[in-house]
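User: Can you fold this complex?
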Amino acid sequence: MGMDTTLRIKPDIEFIEFLKKDSGSDLSICMQCGSCTAVCDLSPEENPFPRKEMIWASWGLRDRLMADEDIWLCHHCGDCSTTCPRDVRPADVMASLRSYSYRHFARPRFLGKWLQSPKYLPLLILFPVLIIAGIIALAGTLKIPEGPVDYSHFFPHGWLNGSFSILVLILFGAMLGSVRRFFLGLKAHGSRLREKNGGLIKRVWKIFIQKDFKSCTTNRYRYIGHYMVFGGFVMLLVVTLFAILATIFFEYPMPFFHPVKIAGNLAGLSLAAGIIFLAINRFKNPSGSKAGQYTDWFFLVNLFLLSISGGIVELARFMDWTPWAYYLYFLHLVLVWLVVLYLPYTKFAHVIFRTLAMLK
Amino acid sequence: MSEEMKNTGVFICTSCGIKNCVDTSALAKIAEGSVKFGNCIEGVNLCHPGGLEVIEKSILDGKLSKILIAACSPRVKTEEFSFNPDILVERVNLREHVVGSHEAGDEDTLMLAEDMMRMGLAKLANSSIPIPFIPEEISNEILVLGAGITGITAAIDGARAGYKVLLVEKKEQAGGWLQELYKQIPSSPPWSKPQNPVLGQALESLKKQENISLYTGTEILEISGQPGAFWVRMNHAGQEKSVLVGAIVLATGWEPYDPSGLEPFGYSNQPDVITSLELELMAGNGGFNRPSNGKPVKNVLFVQCAGSRDKDHLPYCSSVCCGTSLKQAQYIREAHPDANVFIIYKDIRMPGMSENYYLEVQKDSRIFLTKGEVSGIISEENQLIVNVRDSLVHSNMDISVDLVVLAVGMTPRDSMDLKLAYRQGPGLPTLKYEFPDSHFICFPYETRRTGIYAAGAVRAPLSISESIEDAGGAMLKAIQCLEATKRGEAVHPRSGDQSYPELYMQRCTDCKRCTEECPFGAYDETEKGTPLPNPSRCRRCGICMGSCPERIISFKDFSIQAVSAMIKAVEVPDEFEEKPRVLAFVCENDAYPAFDMAGMKGLKYSPFVRIIPVRCIGSVNKVWISDALSRGFDGIMQIGCKPGDDYQCHFIQGSELTETRGENLQETLQTMMLEPERIRTEFIEIDEYDKIPDLINDYMEEIENIGPNPFKDL
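Assistant: Here's the predicted assembly.
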């Protein structure tokens, strides 16, 4: 892993201070014993983690850490934090490192700054509000429609699907930019990705069944919550694709008992319930995060509100809550943007980085 | 009844399984006729009031002066079996060495016990009560050499205990290294910041002590004499002065290790590579500037274990360098709020509570610690680039700094400063790592010169608080020595022993073996080489007795003659096949207790071995070996304590001397036309009692293979 090259040490004090604040860990008092690494079930034998990451973090070696694939192999089980004799909580430091990397690799950088502190929250919300209102205005439907609730009267399917698809494509493009910068960083440090076990299919399957999560000891049941979120999200993605096709080729909206509709509703429930499960787990588990990790929560809360608002918007349609149904729908759309628009900067990006790290 | 046995009484205990194991009346018979009283004490433990009453009554009625107690090991019940100091007591160890380790009721067991009785009687017949040696003139004053924190504290402790103290310092000022310290490592909560050196308080209380005479700017010219009466000649401000002292505390301290020879650091040619001591002086002078260009220092790297824990330089850990660097890191951080300090260590070692200080210092985000090895320092663009290998950070990293500080270890100051007028040289013999301690675990402060006790960093690398503690310990030892000398007793390890070696000078050939081999330099000699004993320096080990080819050195209660008589007292059967005999000289300090423990554990070994306890395996004289061989013993074992670096010999060199003397013994065997295997030397540790059966039985097998001693029939 490029360990023969000479590393020039330039401690980045701001980076240390950020990590300390974000993770709530006094990482300077790490005595580098390696208990964390010894107990980690996910750590490989060769060049194991997270001791080296803890040392790099306490030495402020930002660039070295940004070229480290291993932070993505960590699943934040918390075994290391429970074992740490100095209570430095390596799991939280690793989480903060991931959180820092999203913003480190994403462009433009100023958005990353905005996502780091609650004081920019109004700006973050205002941005999608204006864009969505602008698109609806362009479509010429920026008023509450009369009659039974039909969201396409407010936001025509073509405009909606067209603009949102473009948004998603742009954001995935931006994500690719982040990933590219990550790989360039690896190369600059003479690092390669680890050799992975098993063939590609085996590795995809491993991700699909969330195998690494099950390896956690301290946080044994967290994988259930994460699986609910993961499964719900994947299902919603499938359902949404079908819905887009439906608006073009079939009848839309679908009746409540349409199998796809049922699947969509269950997926939404699974997503919301999964997030609640994870949130409770975070608060209850002694090894859980004690730190603010504001950007983490920004994403989780948005995702939760998104799934809840989706359900309510659907209910509002069936109940014909004019004009509230449209306001709720607008709010729901803003939440969709909040989740998707800031993808490269938030926890959402882990979907890309981690998957890559585990597959490549 | 011989003349010397007229006043002897024998008392045989029947308790603790003795009566069930051997026929005690048969043992009594051995004594009968040859002594005044030969008693088996039935129905009561000899050590219980009833038994002791019988002994005391017999002493009075029979006007006894020597008694033989055949009961348990001489290592136990010493208080019970000590009577009027004029009574010489000899113990025969029936309980541990017979009952415990041999078959009850067996013929061979009884023969063993009978021989032990004979040996005990023979020793008693050839021994007498020691008459203590007390120097004519004894001084109550104690010399403390070196007025650093250790010396000052030792002097104060001695004065408080009521002794006059002569505190001598070579430099013009008392205070030692502490004068150079800007701050010292904290020694109490909250452990967060370096504290002011404790020297001020120490100097204050030194002034208050009337019993201390402080001589600064004073050099020792010569120390001669012995405990109780050392003559100290010194040069004070050009004046020669002579003082008599009773004991000496050596507190001359330490010197930093010179890092010039440490390849990767370039101490000699890089001006910005300095030692921790040099940085300390910088701190005291009010600022950290680069020696190369005088510009302020910002980033600093500390190299821990610079030369320490390295077999080619200082093989040991000095235990204070880690704390010192942490302290100095705080100096740097305080001087420049945005300075980065790197500490590269082998391990951080903060003994005891000082760990708390490490925890505190670690909290600083700009103090970067890691394990690693500094492999080179180069100068580049006005900066030092330190290359670190095999660190936990990275296998190879470069750190750019303004100053590199080498945390060098402590080396003891040369004890030649004592200028002893001893035949064996002016300094103290050193042990492991060149420190003059005589035993690093069992006998702290003891040096190999009786009456001279090392304290502080000259004895071992110690911190300030450890040195302060050490000072008290060494002073107590000095006082103990002084008091013991006044009573004519050994200080240690044979505390209270009043015997001492006496030389029959008429037969001395000036061969110098005793003066050379004494581990404690007790003998001086005339120009001709005639030994001049200094009994107060003696530890009563008997190594000189073992060394003397003329057999002229003996103690009143442990003599060439007595042991020879013991050997001759053993009845060696003529027929070998069933009854071989092996004589074992066993060191009283570790090996003998191991035999006792084997007995207590009921471990069985051959009953054909006859044990003679000796003060040190080095006290075994060659004549005893030839006596035993001519007596018909088939083999001889010498069982001593473990020699070597982590030695356990209480007299330091006894075991090693036995090994070297072994060559001479082989010559003896050759002249007698005997097999070299007839003598075997073994070393065991005190807790290796479980090895004893194998040790003995293995040798018995070998002896059976060689066959009988041809001298048996003669």
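Chain B has a mean pLDDT of 93. Residues 300 and 403 of chain B are 5 Å apart (CA to CA).
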